[in-house]
Amino acid sequence: MFKTFMNRYGTPLTTGFFIVSAVTGVAMFFHWAPIAFHPIHEWLSMVLLAPFILHLVKNWTSLVNYARRRTLFVPLIIAFAACVPFFFQGPGGHSGNRRTASIALPVLEHAPLSEIAPLIHMDGEGLVHRLQSKGYTVGSVEQTLGDIAKASGRPVNDAVVAALQQPQGNSGEGSGSGGGARRPN
User: Fold this and answer.
1) Contact between 110 and 144 (Cβ < 8 Å)
2) Three-class SS state of 34
3) Quick one: which H or E segment has residue 12?
4) Would you say 179 and 173 are in contact if contact means Cβ atoms under 8 Å apart?
5) What is the C-alpha separation between 119 and 183, in angstroms, rounded?
6) Closest Cα to residue 24, out of 46, 6, 8?
7) Distance, CA of 168 to CA of 178 (rounded, Å)
8) What is the pLDDT of residues 126-161, one digit of tens each?
9) pTM to 2 decimal places
10) Distance between CA 143 and CA 135 in Å, rounded?
11) Cα(41)–Cα(23) distance, rounded to whole angstroms?
12) How would you class 39 by CB atoms within 10 Å of its CB: exposed for 0-12, middle for 13-18, buried for 19 or more?
């Protein structure tokens, strides 16, 4: 029964999950991806491991023959060597985005709204209104995004995004200097 399952579904499942991984990966590379593509890519690439193992088991004899003929080693060396430059990537590369976010998030999480608001060209009350309009429980400009997220039962990452994200069409939200509109560069 297991052999029948492997023969019937190993390669099709590998193909299906590879297509999902390839499409989401290419879209993320070219910055065409909706926000859902990142977790789809990460999680379904992990799920891809199961059908990949089934595919390896099903094709084990062929894989061993590639190794005996030594045609397996050059592609493996090329694949692993292609990874090396990414370990020496400077802070300006794509990996810097995640690193920067991991450094900035704790700062934003523990800063009161009154200190975050000027960074996004708003006053504290405008930022309170923005968060309240997005369903967050906010009592004062002295609350931190961490406290607001906890009181609202939502992840702090979502609260940070809700606070920092410019509204669609700049609907004039906020009050005081700057309102909610971006300053020109």
Assistant:
1) yes
2) coil
3) helix 2-29
4) yes
5) 11
6) 46
7) 16
8) 999 999 999 999 999 999 999 999 999 998 888 888
9) 0.47
10) 16
11) 9
12) exposed
